[in-house]
Every structure is written in structure tokens, then in C-alpha cells.
Amino acid sequence: VGAVIAVASSVAVVASVGTVAPGASPGRTASPSPRVHAAPTLSASARMAYWRDGKLWVSDLDGSLRQAIASTDDARRISLTRWSGDGSAIAFVHSAVSLSVVWLDGSATAADLPIELRNAGYRIADLRWSPDSRRIAATLLRPGDGRADAFLIDLAALTPSWRRLTTLDDLFVGDWISPSAFLAYTAGGAIGIVDTSAGNAIRLLSGVQGISPVLGPDGRIYYVVG
Fold first, then answer.
1. Residue 38 · residue 48 · CB < 8 Å
2. If 92 and its partner were Cys, which of 81, 135, 159, 174 is the partner (CB 3.0–4.6 Å)?
3. Residue 142 pairs with which residues in a beta bridge?
4. Which of 177, 89, 91, 179 is nearest to 138 (CA)?
5. How far is the C-alpha of 92 from the C-alpha of 81, rounded, in Å?
6. Which residues, 6+ apart, have CB-to-CB distance to 208 below 8 Å?
7. What is the per-residue pLDDT across 87-124, written as a single tens digit (0 to 9) for each?
8. DSSP β-bridge partners for residue 109
9. How far from 97 is each of 68, 104, 162, 164, CA to CA, in Å?
């Protein structure tokens, strides 16, 4: 019976996990509904964010201070839900071609991929918040041939838009290591640093070969080898 319940629950999660209306009118309730349709993600201050019944909810771990800050017509099209480092905003991607950022005060912004990038087959495959929560670095990938590069969204701009940082056709973004630089890697195993303050210069980490680099809490860089 336990196995059947587990399988049924998994199917429900997959089936529920799609047009986005950022900045939905906030609504607070005393306790959350038990129907959580997607695994929650936590902020640095341990607040939860999760999609349920077509809305993006945030709450404390005990379910208190629950608030809906965005909505969608089809949650199955939502991916990459990510808290900003300071816990003031949440970013998410709709249909792999539109980035939305919603602040806890109810304000919101969105940046669709330009038509030329969409026609070329690019999709948003990953996103990483800068430490100051003012910019987002994203990997734009062409699933058809695996070509990928780093792009940047400046949320402080009057109208946030996509800016291409690299033209290697084989580069994936990693964690930010400063307000102006982030880790990156290639499918071939090269790990480097992209410095946006130095003309988007790419500096390889000498002697390092691997993928998926992350910045640890101790300030060291960890990555996968083999």
C-alpha cells in the first residue's frame, strides 16, 4: 500500500509541474493546503517557495506567513524556480523562453528571449543570481546541437534585456564568485571564470578539468571529475 501511495504521489507531482502572470495579488492564509504540487526550494533565510494550484507561494517552514506572489495558467511549463541570495525575490522560467522575476513586495519584471534567439533554437537551460541580487547569468542552450553560451540580465536596467557574454558555442554558467564574475565550464571539461567587469574575459583555472563547478561556503571551488 505504501508503494502504491508513493507512486501515485510521484505521478501527481510530475503531472502538476505552465502563461505566467507575475505580480499576482498577494493573498495570505493562516495555514497551507496539503496539496503541494512541486518540491519547495529554500531561501538563505529558510523560507519556502513552491508552486501549487497555479500559484507561486512563499511561506515560513511551518507554513506561516504564506503569500501568493505569482500565478500561471500551466505550472507544467514552469522551471528553474530560484531564490535571490538576499531572499527578496524569486526568478523562474516559463516555457524555456521567458524569464520572470517576482519580488516579495509584489513587483515583478519579465524578459522574453528575443525572437532571433528563439528562432535559432535557443532555450533557457540554467540561471544563477549574482551575490548582490541585481543580475542573473543564464545558460542559453540549443538542444538540437548542444551549443550553449552565457547571457546576462541586468535587473537594475529600466527595461531588462538579454546581453550575450560569450560566443564559444560551448559554455555553461556556474556560481557567481563576486558581483562581477562567475564560474563557467565547457562540455569538454574546461573550468574558468567569466569576468563581466573586464570585457567578459574568460580565465581558465590552471590545471583544472571537470564540470559543474560550485562555490562552497568555505570560499573554495568544488566540481565534478570523471
1. no
2. 81
3. 147
4. 91
5. 4
6. 191, 223
7. 999 999 999 999 999 999 889 999 999 999 999 999 99
8. 101
9. 23, 23, 11, 15
